[in-house]
From TrEMBL:
Role description: Negatively regulates transcription of bacterial ribonucleotide reductase nrd genes and operons by binding to NrdR-boxes.
The name this protein goes by in its record: Transcriptional repressor NrdR
Cross-referenced InterPro entries: ATP-cone_dom, NrdR-like_N, RNR_NrdR-like
Keyword Magnesium: no
Keyword terms: ATP-binding, DNA-binding, Metal-binding, Nucleotide-binding, Repressor, Transcription, Transcription regulation, Zinc, Zinc-finger
Keyword Membrane annotated: no
Gene that this polypeptide is encoded by: nrdR
Pfam families: ATP-cone, Zn_ribbon_NrdR
UniProt source species: Microbacterium pullorum
Amino acid sequence: MHCPFCRHPDSRVVDSRTSDDGLSIRRRRQCPQCGGRFSTIETASLNVIKRSGVIEPFSREKVMSGVRKACQGRPVTEGDLAMLAQSVEESIRQTGSSQIDTNDIGLAILGPLRHLDEVAYLRFASVYQAFDSLDDFDAAIAQLRADHAAAVATADAD
C-alpha cells in the first residue's frame, strides 16, 4: 500500500476494525517514512461469470434492477429491493466462492423474492426459468399453493 502523502511503497497497519455491515475491514495505517496516517477499506471481491463467459464485478444494483422489473406495479418499495439485494449478496458470499455464475445468482434471488411478493416471483421465475407454456405457470402456482398450505398447517400446529 503506497503512502498517499510521500508515495513510500510500504505502510504498517496500526488498527483493524470490521465495518458495521461486517462485509469490509477498515484499516488504519501509518507510513514508516513520513509518519503520515491514513485509512483503507478492504472488501473481498466477488465476480460474476456471465453466460457469454465475460467476468465482471458483482453489483447489488443489477440485482435490484432485474427484480424491479418483476415487481413493476406491485406493492414493493425501493427499501424492500435493497434488502433483497443485500440478502442475495450475503447468501452468495456465504458460499465462500470469489466467482459465481449468473444462474446461481438467479437461484439466490428466487427464494427471497418468493417471500417478498409471489406475483413478482412468478414473473421473475417465468423469465429466469424460461417458462414455455401455461403448464409451467400451473406447476409453479401449484407449488406456491402447496407451500402456502404447508406453512398454514405448521402455524396452526404451533
